[in-house]
Design brief:
Blueprint lengths: L3 H20 L4 H13 L5 H10 L6 E2 L1 H8 L1 E3 L6 E10 L2 H6 L6 E13 L3 E3 L5 H8 L3 H18 L3 E5 L9 E4 L4 E5 L5 H17 L11 H18 L19 H28 L10 H4 L4 H17 L3 H32 L10 H4 L3
Parallel strand pairs: 6-8
Antiparallel strand pairs: 1-4, 2-5, 3-4, 7-8
C-alpha cells in the first residue's frame, strides 16, 4: 500500500504535469486545443481544466465510474485509463479551529483528493446528448445566428452599462469592430456578410470590455496579450454553441507564454470571462428556443426508411429519458408518438398486403395461444 509521502508525490506530479502542458502553449494549434478543453469543461475550476487537458486533451465529457452507469446508462471500457481531477476535502470546524483560522465559517477546505473520472469516449452504452447538440443544429440556420447576435446585443444595451452600436465596415478601416474604453462602447460593422463572424466579433469586443476596460485590473496588459485574450474568449464562446471558427485567426501566445505565473494568470482571466459569456449565451439560446430539437415535419416521416424510423425512435426515447426540461420532454414525446403512428400505419399496410396476397393463410383462433406450453 502506498505511503502518504508516495501519495503526495503522485499528486504533486499530476499538478506539475499540468503546468508543463500549459507552459507549452506557445503556438496557435496547441492553444486552440486548450481552449477547446475550456469550452467543454467551463464549469470546472481552472486547475481541473488544466489537469484534464494535461492528461487527455481530446476529452469532451467526464464522469466517475458509477455516475456513467447510473446517470447515463453507460459502462467504462475495460482497461480505460482514468483522468484525475481535484476534489476539495471539506471539514466542519471546531470553535478552536474557527478562532485559529480567524473565520466564522462552519466548514472549510482542508485539502484536496484526486478522484478518477473517465471521458465519454472511454465508455460504451446509450448515446449522450446535450442541449448544445440542438444549439449547433439550430444555429446552422442563418436567421438563428442573427437572432442570437441581436439578442446578445440587446442584452448588453439594456441590462449592462455598455453601449453597443453599429456602423458600416467602411468606417472601421479594415476592422470588424472595436471597444472604446473611454466611452464604454462597442462598435460592430453593420454590413458584415458573415453572420457567425459578426457574432464572434461581438463576443471578442465584449471580452475586451470585461478584461481591458478603464476599471479593469488588466487594462495595462500589452496589446498582443489583450488581443489574444479577447480572441480566446470569442473562440471559446463560439465553440460552446457549436459554430466552427476554425478559419478565424487566433494569433500566437508566445509573447506572454514563457512565464508560469503570467500564463496561469492569463488563462484564469480568460476562463472567468468565458464562463460569463457561456452562461449569457446559454440563457439567450434557451429564450430563443435554440436548445430545442428541431421538429421533423410530419410529411418527412413518409420519406424515411424503416431503418431510419427505428433509429429516430430509439434516439428520441433516449432524449425523453435524459432531458430534465419538461417542455422539451413533452416535445420529444409528441415526436415519439408521430413516429410510432407512422410505424404502426406501415405495419398494418404490410400485414394487409400480405393477407391479400396469401388468402389461404388464416388468422389463429383468439384463444389458441393460451393452449401453447413453453
Amino acid at each position: 500500500m502506498p505511503s502518504k509521502a508516495d501519495i503526495n508525490a503522485w499528486k504533486a506530479q499530476l499538478v506539475a504535469q499540468a503546468e508543463q502542458q500549459i507552459l507549452k502553449l506557445t503556438d496557435s494549434d496547441r492553444f486552440k486545443q486548450y481552449l477547446n478543453t475550456l469550452a467543454k469543461f467551463h464549469h470546472y475550476s481552472a486547475r481541473n481544466i488544466e489537469l484534464i487537458y494535461a492528461q487527455n486533451p481530446q476529452a469532451t465529457q467526464v464522469a466517475g465510474f458509477k455516475q456513467w452507469q447510473t446517470a447515463f446508462n453507460r459502462t467504462v471500457d475495460r482497461g480505460a485509463k482514468a483522468i484525475r481531477i481535484a476534489a476539495p476535502i471539506i471539514k466542519k470546524l471546531t470553535p478552536a479551529e474557527q478562532k485559529q483560522f480567524n473565520t466564522t465559517d462552519e466548514r472549510a477546505i482542508v485539502g484536496y483528493r484526486y478522484l478518477p473520472v473517465f471521458d465519454v469516449l472511454q465508455t460504451s452504452g446509450e448515446p449522450v446528448l446535450s442541449a448544445k447538440d440542438f444549439v449547433k443544429e439550430n444555429l446552422a440556420d442563418h436567421q438563428n445566428v442573427t437572432s442570437l447576435y441581436n439578442a446578445f446585443k440587446d442584452y448588453l444595451n439594456q441590462q449592462t452599462d455598455l453601449k453597443v452600436s453599429e456602423v458600416p465596415l467602411a468606417k472601421l478601416k479594415g476592422a470588424k469592430g472595436y471597444f472604446q474604453p473611454s466611452t464604454n462602447e462597442i462598435v460592430i460593422g453593420s454590413d458584415e456578410p458573415d453572420n457567425a463572424l459578426k457574432l464572434k466579433t461581438l463576443y471578442h469586443e465584449y471580452a475586451h470590455s470585461q478584461l481591458h476596460g478603464l476599471k479593469s485590473a488588466f487594462k495595462d496588459r500589452p496589446r498582443a496579450y489583450q488581443e489574444t485574450q479577447a480572441e480566446a474568449v470569442a473562440y471559446v464562446a463560439m465553440q460552446n454553441i457549436g459554430v466552427d471558427t476554425g478559419n478565424y485567426s487566433l494569433g500566437y501566445v508566445a509573447t506572454w507564454a514563457k512565464d508560469k505565473a503570467v500564463i496561469h494568470s492569463a488563462l484564469s482571466e480568460i476562463q472567468q470571462v468565458s464562463n460569463k459569456v457561456i452562461e449569457l449565451s446559454d440563457g439567450l439560446t434557451k429564450q430563443l428556443g435554440l436548445q430545442e430539437a428541431q421538429k421533423e415535419p410530419e410529411h418527412d416521416l413518409k420519406k424515411l426508411s424503416a431503418q431510419e424510423l427505428n433509429k429516430s425512435y430509439q434516439g428520441l426515447q433516449q432524449q425523453v429519458q435524459q432531458t430534465t426540461n419538461s417542455q422539451q420532454k413533452a416535445q420529444f414525446k409528441n415526436q415519439l408518438h408521430e413516429i410510432h403512428e407512422e410505424i404502426s400505419e406501415r405495419t398494418q399496410k404490410q400485414l394487409q398486403a400480405f393477407s391479400e396476397q396469401n388468402p389461404a393463410i388464416k388468422q389463429p383462433e383468439h384463444n389458441a395461444a393460451k393452449t401453447l406450453k413453453r
